[in-house]
C-alpha cells in the first residue's frame, strides 16, 4: 500500500509550523505561514550577524525581537 503523502511534503509542513511557533514564541509576533517562511532565514541571518558583532551567541529570542523591532519595518 503506497503512502498517501510524500515524506518531503510532511517535513516541509512540519518545518513551517515549527518556524511559525518559534517566531511567535521568540518575538511575540503572530505571522502567517508565508510571513514566517520569509522571515525565518532573515532572523537566522540576523542572529548570526548580531552574534558576530557582539562576540557571543545572542540567542534566537534576542535576534527575533531585534529583527522585528529594528530591522523589519511593518
Walkthrough of the structure:
There is one protein chain. The chain has one domain (7-71). α1 (7-27) crosses α2 (33-54), α1 crosses α3 (59-71) and α2 crosses α3. The chain has helices spanning 7-27, 33-54, 59-71. It starts with 6 loop residues before the first helix and ends with a helix. The protein is elongated and about 30 Å long. It has 3 helices and no strands. Helices cover 76% and strands 0% of the residues. The model has no long low-confidence stretch (mean pLDDT 77). The protein has 74 residues and is mainly α.
In short:
The chain is mainly α. The chain is built from three helices and no strands.
Please supply descriptive tags for the structure shown above:
74 residues, 76% helix, mainly alpha, 3 helices
Distance from first to last alpha carbon:
48 Å
Rg over C-alpha atoms, rounded to the nearest angstrom: 15 Å
Overall structural class, as computed from helix and strand content, comes to mainly alpha
The helix/strand order is HHH
**Average predicted confidence as pLDDT:** 77
Number of strands: 0
Q: How many distinct folded domains?
A: 1
Uncertain stretches of 5 or more adjacent residues: none
Helical content stands at: over 70%
Count of helical regions:
3
Shape: elongated
Q: Sheet bearing the most strands, described?
A: none
> How large is the share of residues in beta strands?
under 5%
Amino acid at each position: 500500500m503506497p503512502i498517501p503523502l510524500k515524506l518531503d511534503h510532511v517535513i516541509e509542513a512540519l518545518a513551517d509550523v515549527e518556524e511559525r511557533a518559534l517566531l511567535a514564541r521568540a518575538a511575540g509576533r503572530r505571522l502567517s505561514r508565508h510571513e514566517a517562511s520569509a522571515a525565518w532565514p532573515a532572523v537566522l541571518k540576523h542572529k548570526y550577524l548580531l552574534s558576530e558583532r557582539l562576540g557571543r551567541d545572542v540567542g534566537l529570542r534576542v535576534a527575533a525581537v531585534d529583527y522585528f523591532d529594528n530591522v523589519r519595518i511593518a
